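Think of the structure tokens as a kind of shorthand, similar to the way a musician reads notation: each symbol stands for something richer, in this case the local conformation of the backbone. In the example below we present two proteins back to back. Begin with the first one, reading the sequence and then the tokens, and try to describe in your own words what changes along the chain.
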Amino acid sequence: MEYFFKLFCKHADVITRVTVWGVTDKDSWKNNFLVRGRVDYPLFFDRNYQPKKSINNFEKIIK
């Protein structure tokens, strides 16, 4: 996810917004979709609402 946000920031002159489909792995629409038991997604918070490493990197990227 960090790669994409760097790319978005690099092209901020033409990218006006980014949509994230979900906040936590627990509430992801992809739970059990295509792969039963899948639990890890590229979202900002894990299943216990704890921030993932990517959220810290995101804060550094946008500053």
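Once you have a description of the first chain, move to the second and do the same.
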Amino acid sequence: MVHESLVNVISLNGRRAVVTGAGSGIGRAAAVILAKAGASVLALDIDREGLSATKGVASQVSDVELDVATVDVSDLAAIESVLSDESLDIVVNSAGIMAPDSLATTSGQDWDRVLAVNLTGYFNVLKSAVPHMNRPGSIIQISSMMGHIGLAFPAYTAAKGAILSLSRQLAGELGPDGIRVNSVSPGMILTGMTQDDLSDGDQRHRIADRTPLRTVGAPDDIANAVLYLASDLSAFVTGTDILIDGGLISTLDL
């Protein structure tokens, strides 16, 4: 666990951030930690109740500024209407859904919906946000360990692999304009998306036993990396992916 004093020395005062998927899990943790560091945060999600809970968590920290808006990231017009008047310094693409099925059992509808949220949703946010971003700026995109190794779930894996490539491509395209683009790839993190698997004690212990650090991750583990990439500590970092999996990927071929 990161010592609280280390997080507290990073200041994002005067910066405006948007975080998608902020109604739960990694998105919520990212929105809260950016707000705690002094950024003014716009938290987006399709889940109104989840956003309300995120606002409640943020309100427990003094002097934070966190606004919320309910929106489906797969709807370009809706995203444009929310972001059209925003002058942003930080963009965190974190919205995501899962279709935990094999090729044989993944329906065309499942495939379309996962890509609409997990890939096209990222594109929609970028199309709407980048023209209004301040320079220097930072874009952080949440990919996945699965995007690196093609592990399970074709729709989800395909989208997350695409995010890795998109982030690298945009780093080259937007770098000359002063916008950095990086990604973060979580491993097994205890969130609502993984709750069915990791809430089972035996399953969680099996995964932890195979992970070199002998534990599964928490949303704050990913949020800490988001804070680093949003801050000036990473001013010369772009086109990079940070894999945060406790070393699990190194054991999957054993």
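Compare your description with these statements about the second chain. The two ends are 28 Å apart (CA to CA).
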